[in-house]
Automatic annotation (TrEMBL):
Keyword Transcription: yes
Pfam name, any one: AsnC_trans_reg
Origin: domain of life: Bacteria
Gene Ontology cellular component list: cytosol
GO molecular function: sequence-specific DNA binding
Coiled-coil stretches noted in the UniProt entry, renumbered to this chain: none
Organism phylogeny: Bacteria, Bacillati, Bacillota, Bacilli, Bacillales
Start and end residues of each HTH asnC-type domain: 12-73
Keywords: DNA-binding, Transcription, Transcription regulation
GO process annotations (BP): response to amino acid
Keyword Kinase: no
SMART domains, alphabetized: HTH_ASNC
Descriptive protein name: HTH asnC-type domain-containing protein
């Protein structure tokens, strides 16, 4: 039996949930096609999607790029220990780095967890030695190279 995630009542009904599921599968689906699948008019679908956007339930529509198809073959997760007084400064600098795809402040007073994508191991090493290690406040870095991806968040499924 599969685990079913029950989202709290956020003023969305089963139709909104179905719209979100379909958009998650294909965010380029037209309002007309979505309406045909759900049994609503194009105008009703558009109104519901606009409402979901206004409520902040839909944050944005985006494109997911396959990194290996553009020559980015090394996917790495980093755990970065930072002196507490430098946490915000380090986080801001890392957030500006092109290679960093996600960055989180984790439990503990000064731990950052981030993901980065690089062309190759040499590019990753250069990022570590020229950018990350020399940052003021960085105490330690632990990194793990991704071997195989089984599932990626890419937006929450309902």
């Amino acid at each position: 039996m599969a685990f079913e995630y029950n989202i709290p009542n956020l003023d969305i009904d089963d139709i909104d949930k179905r719209i979100l599921e379909m958009l998650h599968e294909n965010s380029r689906i037209s309002y007309t096609d979505l309406g045909k699948e759900i049994g609503l008019s194009r105008v009703a679908v558009q109104a519901r999607i606009n409402n979901l956007i206004e409520k902040g339930i839909i944050e944005k529509f985006t494109t997911v790029i396959n990194p290996t198809k553009i020559g980015m073959h090394v996917s790495v997760f980093f755990n970065v220990e930072v002196e507490p007084q430098y946490l915000e400064e380090v986080a801001q600098k890392l957030a500006e780095e092109h290679a960093v795809t996600s960055l989180y402040h984790m439990t503990g007073p000064s731990k950052l967890h981030m993901h980065g994508i690089f062309k190759n191991n040499q590019e990753m090493e250069k990022f570590l030695t020229k950018k990350l290690y020399p940052m003021r406040g960085v105490v330690s870095v632990d990194c793990q190279i991704l071997i195989k991806r089984y599932k990626s968040r890419m937006g929450m499924k309902l």
